Amino acid sequence: MRAAQLLWLLFFLGTTLTGLLACGVQSDAIVVIALHPRNPNILYIATNDYIYKSRDEGKSWEAISRGMTHSRVIAMAIDPAYPAIVYAGTKGDAVYKSYDGGHRWVSQRTGLDDVTVTSVVNQIVFGLPRQAPVPGDAPLPVTRLFAATTMGVFESADGGDTWTKRMAGMKEILMVVTLAIHPGWPDIVYAGTSGGVYKSSDRARTWAKVHQGMISPDVLSSGRALMVNTVLIDPQRPDTVYAATLNGLYKTEDGARAWTRIGQTLPDQMINVLALDPTVSGTVYVAGREGVFKTTDGGTTWKPINKGLASLNVRSLALSPEDPKTVYLGTNGSGLYRSRDGGETWETVPLAVGKKT
Predict the structure, then answer these.
(1) Do 36 and 78 contact (CB within 8 A), yes or no?
(2) Which of 7, 69, 94, 234 could be disulfide-bonded to 240 (CB atoms 3.0-4.6 Å)?
(3) Which long-range contacts (CB under 8 A, 24 or more apart) does 292-296 make?
(4) pLDDT confidence of 49, banded at 50, 70, 90?
(5) Which phi and psi (to 5°) does residue 234 adopt?
(6) What is the pTM of this model?
(7) Rounded to whole angstroms, what are the CA distances from 242 to 171, 258, 261, 273, 350?
(8) CA geometry: angle at 96 spanning 90 and 98, to 5°?
(9) Where are the alpha helices (DSSP H) in the chain?
(10) Burial label, 327 (beta-carbon count in 10 A; 0-12, 13-18, 19+)
């Protein structure tokens, strides 16, 4: 195994660097931050211990892990049409689903495991409909899902009840870390893997490598050519795609025909966290072991935005769907932070927990 891949696995699987939260509950990291698509008061976080939910913009929290095992939650997704439905991906116990805002969970693993192996679910994304909903119709839950797992890409057409593997064309790799779906044409899907970036034009039925400019030709056939942590599509310019890897940040402006490396002045080239402002093209946040950096020109110039942070070891970051200048940040040891001004300043969000369920 390459040294870079080993470093990534050590980061991803986690080490026990226990920090004390305000309520006395211990956790080593804010692993996931999930924000309600329409109500800015509601947010979820996942630590190495529990999932927590706040209904008052982080003033108070409750632990909501009833019905789940103690497998670590490493991914969460809130149904954009029916936000009471929440999905959680775990490190070794597949997918859980809640129908009531996270208070009760049911296992959804059919097709995601076999007798000997259960998938580590790195990300869950919602498959977008090909046509816009009819005006005036009540929104329906999103039933088509995709999961990026250590066993590959899986699709569910029934809200997670059953899963089908979608790996045609990905012969060289096994681990899929991240997925991104084109906002205007949902048949187009990108996958970040242990061996670079792949692209599908038929809703994950078949995949093709799209590595040009990202991986040197002599290692192009290797299944561990380049570990890609995050792939994000600019919703304002969907042919512009960013890929965060263990060896720097890459950008394409032509739908992955060719990639260009950007952000080479960043102090840490092992990019773990990547986020885009959905309303302003070219505004990008990256973070990792050296803090948070922001660009407003698509990656040409960068500036650090760490004022108020007690730790620069950043694990997670999320922009509010209602107001992208409101940004939440999770660290690997000093808790949760919030910025109201696009990261210019940060304030702590104490994790005061009222009860566990």
Answers:
(1) yes
(2) 234
(3) 292/317, 292/329, 292/343, 293/263, 293/266, 294/342, 294/343, 295/263
(4) confident
(5) -70, 115
(6) 0.88
(7) 24, 12, 10, 12, 32
(8) 135
(9) 3-13
(10) buried
At 24 the three-state DSSP class reads coil
Please name every residue paired with 91 in a beta bridge, in sequence order, or none if there are none.
120
Q: What is the pLDDT of residues 125-180, one digit of tens each?
A: 999 766 656 676 777 888 999 999 999 999 999 999 999 999 999 988 879 999 99
Long-range contacts: 295-303, Cβ < 8 Å, 24+?
295/263, 298/240, 298/251, 298/262, 299/242, 299/249, 299/251, 299/262, 299/263, 300/262, 302/263, 302/265, 302/266
Find out whether 34 and 51 touch, Cβ atoms under 8 Å. Answer: no
Q: Does the pLDDT of residue 23 top 70, yes or no? A: no
- The count of other CB atoms within 10 Å of the CB of residue 152 is 18
Q: Which two tokens stand for residue 209?
A: 């490598």
DSSP state of 219: G
- pLDDT at position 92, please? 85
* Mean pLDDT to the nearest integer, 13-27: 39
Helices (H) and strands (E) in the chain, counts: 1, 31
Rounded Cα–Cα distance for residues 77 and 123 (Å): 8
Residues constituting the chain:
357
**Amino acid of residue 346:** W
Q: Report how far residue 306's alpha carbon sits from residue 303's, in angstroms, rounded to the nearest whole number.
A: 10
86-109: per-residue pLDDT in tens?
999 999 889 999 999 999 999 999
